[in-house]
Amino acid sequence: MAEGLTEITVADSGDGNYVQSVQGKTHAFLSDASLEKGGQDKGASPYELLLAALGSCTSITIRMYAERKGWPLDKVSVRLTHHREDDMGNAVIDIITRDITLEGNLDAEQRARLLEIANKCPVHKTLGNNPRMLSRLEG
Questions:
Q1: pLDDT over 50 (residue 69)
Q2: What is the phi/psi pair of residue 50, to 5°?
Q3: What pLDDT, in 10s, does the model give residues 103-112?
Q4: Distance between CA 14 and CA 30 in Å, rounded?
Q5: Is 118 exposed, middle or buried (0-12, 13-18, 19+ CB in 10 A)?
Q6: Are 32 and 41 in contact (CB under 8 A)?
Q7: Is the pLDDT of residue 1 over 50?
Q8: What are the angstrom distances between the C-alpha of 80 and each of 1, 39, 51, 89, 95?
Q9: From its phi and psi, is residue 88 left (phi > 0), alpha (psi between -120 and 50) or beta?
C-alpha cells in the first residue's frame, strides 16, 4: 500500500465545456477554465488549485511550527503567483512566487526560521522533488 495515499476524483460535471466536478474524501467543489480559455469560470482554474494547495500547505506548516514553539504568530497569509518564462530560448520554465506575510510580535530570528519552515511544507517538497507522473487508462 502506498504511504500517505491521497485520492481525488475529477470528472466532467456536465455543466459546460470545461467545468469539472472535484470529489475528495469529504469535500466536493468545481474547477473550470477561465473565460479567456473558453471556460465559464465556475470554479478555480487548475493553476489556481495548484497555487492554493501550495499556499494552504505553506500557511498550515508555518502555523503548526509556530504553535509548537509557542511563538506569538497572530496571522499568516500567503500570496502566490505563477507564470512561465522562456529560459533564453532553451526551454520554458515555470516560476512560482510565494509572498508570505507574518503578523505578530516575532523577532528577526523567528521570522527567518518560519521562512525556512515554509520551504519544508510537504507540497513544496513534492513539487521540488520532480514527482513521477503515472497515467493509466481504466475501463
A1: yes
A2: -60, -45
A3: 999 999 999 9
A4: 11
A5: buried
A6: yes
A7: no
A8: 34, 22, 6, 26, 10
A9: left
